[in-house]
Structure formats: C-alpha cells, structure tokens
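Figure S4 source data
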Amino acid sequence: MKTEVTIQGLSASLNPARTARKIIGFVPTMGNLHEGHLNLVREARKLCDVVVVSIFVNPIQFGPNEDFENYPRTLEQDSHLLADAGCDIIFAPSVEQMYGSQPRLTNISVGKITDDLCGKSRPGHFDGVAVVVTKLFNIVQPNYAFFGQKDYQQLAVIRQLVRDLNLPLEVIGVPITRAADGLALSSRNGYLSTEERQLAPSIYQSLKNAELELQQGQALSQVLDHVKSQLTQAGLVVEYVEARTPELQAVHEFNQSLVLFVAAKLGNTRLIDNLQVNYSH
C-alpha cells in the first residue's frame, strides 16, 4: 500500500491502473477511522480493482465554533487499519496541496436539500463538502465512490452534485455500521465520556421504537414528538427529529417509505442518526 501526499504523486500512482482500464474505487474520509469507514473500503474492494482512500480534514466544512483544530488526526493508526481492509493507495494531502496559496473564488452550492436538517445549524457546511468532494473526484477520477448512509443528507447532496454536474462516476451508499448496542459508529463518539457513551444508544432505540409505532398505525407527527420526548428524558438536547422521503422531500404522513432523522447533543458532542422505514400497505 502506498501513501501519496501530492496530487502529482497520486496521478503517477494511478496512471498504470487507468492505462489498463482498471476499475478505481474511492472512499473519501477525514481520517480517525473506525469500523464504519473500513466497511466502505471492504465494499469498494468487492467492486473495484484499485481502492483509493483519502484522508483530509477539510477546513472549509467546519463552522467557526466547530472542532477543526481538535479533530483527531491519526494517520499512522489509520494506515494500519486501511492496509488490513484492502486499501491500495492512501491520499493524504495538506491543506495547501488541496487549496493552494491563492484565495479560492469558486464555490459549489447544492440548493434546497441543504437548507434544513444539518444545513440549518451548520450554514456553509454542505458548500464546504461539495467543494472538497468535487475537487477529490477530479483528482482521483474514480469509477465508483463510496459513502456511508449515516451522513444521509451528505450522501443525498453528493448524489445531486454528481447528477447535476454530469460527473462521470457512480456514488454508492453503504448501510450504517453500528456498535453492538446500536450506536451509529462515528469519529465523534470518541468525544463521549463513559457515562455519555452509555446514554448514546437511546438515539437508535428511539428510532426503532418510532418504526414500530408507525407500522402499528400511529400518526407521524405523534411518533416524532414521542422520539423527542424519549431523547430529552434520556438527557440529550434534541436539535431536530424529522421525517423525509428518501430524496429528502418533506413528508407529513406515513403513506410511503421514509427516512427518520435525528440530531442531538450529548454533553458537547453532536450525534446524528437515521433510520429508513419501509411502507408496505
């Protein structure tokens, strides 16, 4: 496995694969990897001849009071995990390598689907994601790119971006990887205290309860309120509990398959999760 830190180095490493028309798979990450990331790499390994993983903490997707400076950077540990999971090339560029020394004058905004859910409390976040992902797609030029469904809104934004800009690749969403107690794996789980970590699975439990209540015929608005009260009672500060269609359109009753979304804070740590609920009447 190679680690490349420059765009030129990565291109040189990928040239033989391109010449041989091999299938290139790409997993973009910010490092501090966990089993969820490694599952993306394993999925890429199944479909692709060459698997590239980027490790880049992207400054332009962090808000002014967010954890860019403190975000864990664990390249050596990540490299060992990636070698075992079947990665061929790590691309670990510096901020200057990605953004240069001149000011960036081009922005990329995906409208509408970035206005609410996480977009509401994190203005500019999805623009930062859209810019860095477009840059990475142009640098790596993969056939397939793999993203986790835990960041469901991000996945929808990237699918929209690829479709709108005719980017020549296919985006593949990979189901959420969960701990044994149901907590969605996330790099931010590392910020939780022991006590908070014991409370965190209540998010998934409340989503599973909501699925059951919907399938028993309870009204959607009532079910969403119930999730909020369950989480508040468990000690979380709820940012939102929402239902959307799989394409992130608003939905007011359970008359089609939908996705339930939660964002809540436990201490200083912001956690998100979602659950797809199938409609089968």
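Figure S5 source data
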Amino acid sequence: MDEQGRPEPPFDGGEAETLLGFLDFHRATLAWKCAGLDAAGLRATVPPATMTLGGLLKHLAYVEDNWFSFVWSGHDRMPPFDAVDWAATPDWDWESAADDTAEQLHNLWQSAVDRSRAAVREALADGDLTRRARRSLRDGNTPTLRWILVHLVEEYSRHNGHADFIRESIDGSTGE
C-alpha cells in the first residue's frame, strides 16, 4: 500500500495479476480523490467544463456495470442504469449525479466495483484472459477479458487525470 492506501501493482505478477493490480490502483485513486467530500464538493466543476467528481463516480459505476455485468457476464443492467433511456439521455450518468447524495454515489460505485471483482474472479477461475464476453458489442466484436481489463485501466487512468484537476480546484489537494 502507498501513503494514500492504494494497493501497489505487483512488479513480478503474471499478466492477470498485473492488469488487476493496475485496475485496483486506479480504482483506489478515484476513491482517494473523492474521499471526504460532501454532495456540494462532488458537484463542483472547473469551468468551463461541467464534469464533477460525483459524475465521475456515477459514470465509472456505469462503466463497471456495463463491461463486467452486462457485456462480460451477460446479465441485465443493474439499477439505476436499467431504467435509463440511453438514446434520449446519453449523458444521464454524468448529469444525474447532481441529484444524488455523496453516500449514494460512493455506494453505487463501490457496489459496481464489488460485482466486477466477483465477475473477474469467477472468469479467471474458469479460464484465462483470452475468454470472450457473453455479449457482443454493437459492431459485432466480442471482446476478451484481457481487452476489457485493459480498457478499464485506460478509462480510470484518463478520468483520474480529470479528478486531479477537479479535486485541486475544490480544496487544493494535489498528488498523482
């Protein structure tokens, strides 16, 4: 663990352990950047952008649910994402976060992460990173577990950069 309580990715792990190590590191980075903020803090923006830390939590909860529950495992979407008309409101996850409490946002994200971790544990117990998801994407491609894990590392890495700027604007907190 580092000084912020984030798990360090292994230096000598196999491919799966390394990917999961980096994914958990980036998940913990998001949790660190959002820690200790009330609803107002999670709604703060850095104009002219409208992105918020609360929006990041809700968006990444959706990303976790979409890739690991919906695409990988073939399950229905979890609430609240199952009731959204995504064609009519493609930014619903970002925009609706302002209506949620800090506790709701953290719980939604953490629940999605917990389900994702369980899905990956189950997948690796039954095979390896070359296994394909149960659902194909809109373009007809069916990603491997490896592809999904790399994509999630990329998604968190990109958004953690956003979280750095937003958090610094709220209270001056800096770091990675």
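The chain has a mean pLDDT of 96. The first helix runs from residue 15 to 34.
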